[in-house]
């Protein structure tokens, strides 16, 4: 009886055909392990009480995750920080349902794309993912405003020769925000650079990627007024008008 050998052989052939078909059509048979590596980080928010409706939600990668003083720096604004890991835009899409809808936020602040650039993703793919994230946020929270923060032109990107890609992403984010109602673009780079366009050294830790308290102080000086303005505007738009 050769049946036990025939079935695995046929299964192997079928699997090979399936993989080839997925590659041909640009699809993945299943989510890659990289997309699952932040499951534990995200799961803690599902177990925690949801923030009060009408607040401010911060989402994104480690620039936000490491901003542990965000709630204090932006007080008394009602900020919830759900930045995680070294996430890329594809990770934000993968975990979207666990992060954004339950916040019931009036304003969502986004910082993501820096790790995509490091991973050699094209500006087009980063912008497409960001556009999809915006669409999903507007579908889940129709009256919520969105603030998109520029990718920071950190010294690490300069040393790797990636500033052209960063600038292309930021140009696209500016255009994207200008084309969608209730989406605003915030450029934090001037606050982190000298008049000559060079990075301010004391804004960065040793990895030349993440920010020091001084870097966060400078970023706060740009973002605070924009966050407050957009948050209040969102609350006003949600208030029913009197007959």
Model description:
By secondary structure, this protein is of the alpha/beta class. The chain has two domains: 30 residues; 206 residues, SGNH hydrolase (Rossmann fold, 3-Layer(aba) Sandwich), CATH 3.40.50.1110. The protein contains eleven helices and five strands. A five-stranded parallel beta sheet has the order 2-1-3-4-5. The N terminus is likely disordered.
CATH topology label of the largest domain: Rossmann fold
Order of helices and strands: HHEHHEHHEHHEHHEH
Gross CATH architecture of the largest domain: 3-Layer(aba) Sandwich
Percent of residues in helical segments?
Answer: 40-55%
User: Unreliable segments (pLDDT under 50, ≥5 consecutive)?
Assistant: 1-35
Strand segment tally: 5
Looking at CATH, the homologous superfamily of the largest domain is SGNH hydrolase
Strand order of the largest sheet: 2-1-3-4-5
What's the pLDDT, averaged over the residues?
87
What's the number of structural domains? 2
Give the radius of gyration.
Answer: 21 Å
User: Beta-sheet strand percentage?
Assistant: 5-15%
What is the helix tally? 11
In this structure, how is the largest beta sheet organized? 5 strands, parallel
C-alpha end-to-end distance: 83 Å
Structural class: alpha/beta
């Amino acid at each position: 009886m050769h049946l036990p050998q025939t079935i695995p052989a046929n299964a192997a052939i079928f699997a090979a055909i399936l993989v080839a078909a997925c590659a041909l059509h640009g699809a993945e048979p299943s989510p890659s392990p990289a997309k699952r590596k932040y499951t534990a980080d995200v799961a803690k928010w599902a177990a925690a009480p949801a923030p009060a409706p009408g607040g401010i939600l911060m989402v994104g990668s480690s620039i936000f995750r490491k901003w542990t003083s965000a709630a204090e720096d932006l007080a008394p604004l009602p900020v919830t920080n759900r930045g995680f890991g070294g996430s890329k835009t594809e990770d934000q899409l993968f975990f979207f349902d666990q992060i954004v809808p339950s916040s019931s936020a009036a304003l969502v602040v986004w910082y993501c794309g820096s790790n995509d650039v490091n991973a050699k993703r094209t500006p087009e793919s980063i912008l497409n993912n960001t556009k999809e994230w915006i669409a999903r946020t507007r579908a889940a929270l129709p009256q919520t405003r969105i603030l998109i923060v520029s990718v920071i032109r950190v010294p690490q990107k300069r040393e790797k020769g990636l500033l052209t890609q960063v600038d292309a992403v930021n140009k696209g984010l500016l255009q994207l925000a200008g084309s969608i109602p209730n989406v605003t673009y915030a450029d934090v780079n001037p606050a982190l650079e000298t008049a000559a366009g060079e990075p301010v050294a004391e804004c960065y830790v040793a990895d030349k990627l993440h920010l020091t308290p001084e870097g966060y102080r400078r970023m706060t000086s740009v973002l605070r007024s924009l966050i407050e303005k957009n948050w209040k505007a969102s609350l006003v738009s949600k208030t029913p008008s009197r007959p």
